[in-house]
Amino acid sequence: MNEATAVSVEKQPLSVEWIGGVDGYLRLIDQTLLPTRLEYVVCRDVETVWEAIKQLRVRGAPAIGIAAAMGLVLGVREFADRSASELRDRVLAIAERLRTSRPTAVNLSWALARLERAAQEPADSAAEIVERLLDQAKRIRDEDREMCAAIGRLGAPLIKDGAGVLTHCNAGALATADFGTALAVLFHAHAEGKRITAYVDETRPLLQGSRLTAWELQRRGVPVVLLCDSMAGLVMRQRKIDAVVVGADRIAANGDVANKIGTYALAVLAQAHGIPFYVAAPSSTFDLSVPSGADIPIEIRDPREVTHGFGMPTAPEGIDVYNPAFDVTPAELISALITERAVIRPPFEGTLATTLSSRP
Amino acid sequence: MNEATAVSVEKQPLSVEWIGGVDGYLRLIDQTLLPTRLEYVVCRDVETVWEAIKQLRVRGAPAIGIAAAMGLVLGVREFADRSASELRDRVLAIAERLRTSRPTAVNLSWALARLERAAQEPADSAAEIVERLLDQAKRIRDEDREMCAAIGRLGAPLIKDGAGVLTHCNAGALATADFGTALAVLFHAHAEGKRITAYVDETRPLLQGSRLTAWELQRRGVPVVLLCDSMAGLVMRQRKIDAVVVGADRIAANGDVANKIGTYALAVLAQAHGIPFYVAAPSSTFDLSVPSGADIPIEIRDPREVTHGFGMPTAPEGIDVYNPAFDVTPAELISALITERAVIRPPFEGTLATTLSSRP
User: Fold this and answer.
1) Is B273 helix (H, G, I), strand (E, B) or coil?
2) Region for residue A83 given its phi and psi (left: phi exceeds 0; alpha: psi -120 to 50; beta: otherwise)
3) 3-state secondary structure of A325
């Protein structure tokens, strides 16, 4: 609590931070408490991280990847005085456990796989491997921060002075190491002096738009108008929206994008109104092993998120609920993919592999 | 409270009822408390009715019309021992007051105008006029019930056996004298033995879909799946939806439809997926004096409905909110208008005037 109070004056506290050395801890902003309370989850063991990912205390594909990588360190460091072989087995077991926390987010598997590879490299001791894993986890974080900055820099030219820009869910600093993906584009355009207005879908059921995105934009001084998800069509028709920019949870080889439920409907609406629809994501979000969106598993979440989302029931008892966390937007509805390497225009098939081939 | 408890066993209590004679009272289901509590607002004066309409305790264009008509009786009956002329002045004053409670709902003006005309007809005494007004108000209710039944009968053939039918907001028994408009179609199809599944948008910000529509359908045994508004696009793409049926707050002469915010986006999505989009409404909802949807005033409601909808803040303090209560769906997106007289197919211009010309 004291810690939370102490840092609440920071303008942009980071969603995921490692505090101290290899015996330190992982500190996460508890995003379920925003915007009314800025508090932290202090993670000193892997189960606290697993729960934080599962319960969306930390969310956003890149932030989950960083948290999982750091969580792996927490889960294996007690084996630092064993043999390297025992430690490597432990790494595999803990990575396996962490992978079950969110099945759809590809960054989670990607970050864990990277640490698993690092663990396999020759080492004099288990302790050396643990140090190396922490170093890798921090590098993933630093690279993510740089990638987000690059996405902002490359994407900002797509946003005109005076533009209304619609976004959905939270693809912001909270979802990443810093800056965000979709929001990096808005932050960069704003920093360049463009007078933009962000239109933010509240994003039911968990309200990441109103709770997180509106909060981030407000803190960084970007003008914000909050909307219910059902209002996006109207503001498009009223010509208030010049571009839609969203993030992504996973992008298939053909350019299909899995992202927060509601993204697909926005893409259809944007096309119907002749509004460009951009997806901003680092290359780690691309999963070229998946041919198309049809092959991306969609996580179905607890009905109570819909029926009891605000501490009181909002639907009759016993009602059936369909609560998919994601949908897939087909590539043909996407005007461009904004990555840290390039703004990629359609057709995406083949282009993606080339552009992202030098991926780490 | 006792009254509420006593009737809570009724299968389908009516949203608007007049209890007793001319010295009786108006009883409204307090729809803001559903689905967790079935309680009533007992109205013995016009201000209670005004507040109930304003605060959406009674909502749905036809139900508002009936409540306003009965509210007018409450507001004028204390003049029953004055002169007919004084009573007629009072009728105009109270009608004027009631009109300010909800500016968009045309049934409200329409019902009040009908009572104003009735008041102007020759009478031996003010008391006779008051009796006549109550009689008119009850006739509006009875006609509405018959209209809703007819809408259900005429609309049901549009719904195929096994269909998934998406609806938005509440155009049900609660919104009318009974049965509803959009829901009358579903109730009738279900009663005919068709195995339909209703997909119900929760309908932010006030959740009429999850609180009211899901409740009504569940009570009448129609299978229901509750969705967040942002999920409608996905279930259409998944081919779970065979038809969209919604109500209307006002329909212009060219067939443009003002209805709950989010309706327009559903119509765009339905067209993109080749799904028929039906609007069910009694002829009293048509306002042929309004050439097109562009001329329909859109009520902008309190931002706190979006930011504080559930007893706790869900957005940062001081955030700008755009909270339109309605949007306008252009006629070209509508497959048919289901009225109590006929299923009207496009083009609507001219057809509407003819079909509705014998309107009471």
Assistant:
1) coil
2) beta
3) coil
pLDDT (tens digit per residue) in B250-281: 999 999 999 999 999 999 999 999 999 999 99
User: What does the angle CA A158 – CA A274 – CA A211 come to, to the nearest 5 degrees?
Assistant: 65
Q: Compute the count of residue pairs across chains A and B with CB atoms less than 8 Å apart.
A: 189
Residue B289 has phi, psi (to 5 degrees) of: -75, -15
Residue contact B307–A218, C-beta within 8 A: no
Q: Where are the beta strands (DSSP E) in chain B?
A: 16-19, 25-29, 40-43, 164-167, 197-201, 224-227, 243-246, 250-252, 257-260, 277-280, 286-287, 320-321, 326-329, 336-338, 343-344
Task: Please give the Cα distance from A334 to A357 (Å, whole number).
Answer: 21
Tell how strand A224-227 and strand A257-260 pair up.
unpaired
Q: In DSSP terms, which residues pair with B244 in a beta bridge? A: B166, B277
How many angstroms from the chain centroid is the CA of residue B223?
A: 22
For B18-41, the pLDDT digits (tens) are 999 999 999 999 999 999 999 999
Q: What is the pTM of this model?
A: 0.89
A230, A266, A306, A328: which to substitute to probe chain B, counting the most B Cβ within 10 Å?
A: A230
> Of the listed A30, A178, A229, A249, which one is catalytic?
A249
Kind of pairing between the strands at A243-246 and B16-19? unpaired
Q: How far is CA A142 from CA A17, A99, A272, in A?
A: 11, 22, 39
Q: Taking Cα atoms as reference points, which of B285, B287, B277 lies closest to residue B252? A: B287
Long-range CB pairs of A55-58 (<8 Å, 24+ gap) are A56/A31, A56/A32, A56/A206, A57/A28, A57/A30, A57/A31, A57/A32, A58/A15, A58/A16, A58/A28, A58/A29, A58/A31
Query: Cβ B202–A202 below 8 Å, yes or no?
Result: no
Q: Which of B174, B225, B231, B317 best probes binding to A when mutated, by most A CB atoms within 10 angstroms? A: B231
pLDDT in tens, A208-228: 999 999 999 999 999 999 999
| Closest chain B CA to residue A219 | B316
Determine the residue type at B79: F
Closest CA to B311 of A36, A333, A60: A36
CA distance A58 to chain B (A): 18
Q: B270: Cβ–Cβ under 8 A, 6 or more apart, which residues?
A: B236, B241, B244, B276, B277, B333
